[in-house]
TrEMBL record:
Top-level taxon of origin: Bacteria
InterPro entries: Azg-like, NCS2
Transport among keywords: yes
Subcellular location: Endomembrane system
Spans through the membrane: 21-46, 52-71, 78-97, 103-122, 134-151, 163-188, 195-215, 270-293, 338-357, 364-384, 404-427, 439-457
Annotated membrane topology: Multi-pass membrane protein
Protein's name according to its UniProt entry: Guanine/hypoxanthine permease PbuG
Protein family membership: Belongs to the nucleobase:cation symporter-2 (NCS2) (TC 2.A.40) family. Azg-like subfamily.
Originating organism: Vagococcus luciliae
Amino acid sequence: MKEKIDHYFGITKSGSTFKREFTGGLTAFFAMSYVIFVNPIILGQAGMPKDAVFMSTILSSAIAMLVMGLWAKFPLGLAPCMSMNAFFAYSVVLQMGKSWQEALASVLVASILFLMLAFSGARSKIIKAIPSNVKQAGTVGLGIFIAFVSFKNSGIIVPDDGMFITFGGFSNPNVIIAFFGIITAAFFLVRKNQYAVFLGMIGAAVCGLFIRFGASMNWFNLSADVVATLPQLPKGSPVVIPTEPMNAMMNDTFMVAVKNLDKMLSLDSIVIILTFLFLDFFGTATTLSAAATQVSDIKQESFEDNKRIYSADALGTFFGSILGTSSLSTYIESVSGIIAGARTGLMSVIVAGLFLLSAFFYPVLSLVTTAVTTPAMVVIGIFMMQNITGIDWDGGFEEVIPAFLTIVMMPLTGSIALGLVLGFLSYELCMIFAGRMKEIPTVMHFITVISVLYLFTI
């Protein structure tokens, strides 16, 4: 059996060992496992049942990684993307007023389109058509947007009549919890620990438990409403058979996307679908490009030109929408498994197995609050912010203006889609103003038309 597994995955041929594959899988799991607890919190703000999202996150991630490992045979992990769940909850549902059921249907349609693109030559044409500066700026804007929302949800930022927003103050214990987690994550980031995100959340949770304990001992004078927002230990065993979240998923979110497909014909729904497609498509391309830079002995083309990797991503999103979660994407955190020595798809299979085992730790969700997730969101924002160095700030104002508008309009308007649309439109206009219209790809003209139509829906 061991020889068959070795032959199937090409473990010895790739210069790896079973031990390296397992170590890489364990490393990748701990580096990206925060999504299991963060995703239900974010989508829960869109009205989705957290228990159901918890289960759909685990199952869809496991399915996607099994496809990645057994079919694409590549050592990468997939799970619901942090930028796309933010777009799903804060832009599509909370800002645009769509129901989460309609949003899931949009994700389903986008996944089908993504799958078609993954197997066609159109994939590379579209990637090349979008200006590099706008792509990089979109990633930066998403990072700022995600951090901004997490600051707001934890109370670090609050509304202010004079300045629109202001610092929430340390009278709110959730602010203390969030900052403690951020400091913890920063400590491990600086020390180049690959589990910084995970450890930052643990630090925040421990801080929250201490404050809850202090309140129960009358050390802190906190109202019952405030105490209710703090992390708490599971009331029973932390390890249970996940019957409750499985039933919630089957009853509340399973196949909901399919049942709402008839609502996808409106113009605003089409724009939402295309935005999901754009975010997933270019998010994967960006992640694969970043992953390629981390591993010197694997050619960049092996990452970026592998149709099966893109297909695994699209299939993961397809199954995720059916089960009840937002778009999946390849996780840059999973590259830590490659750095730890993994070189084959066996690593992805191991991570999938660990994700499935994590379902039995469902009660631990009681420890995860919006304040506890803040360190994860901030670190993600930091990673995405680094793409700002990829913007050509010396390329002329026709390059700078679209990048600037894309970055600032996402967090300031609270709309990821609007930030991208304004980036596309300003690029087209500025290139025309600069007399460089012939340099604009035909595909970009089509995207511009869609962008104009989107403006009439808001």
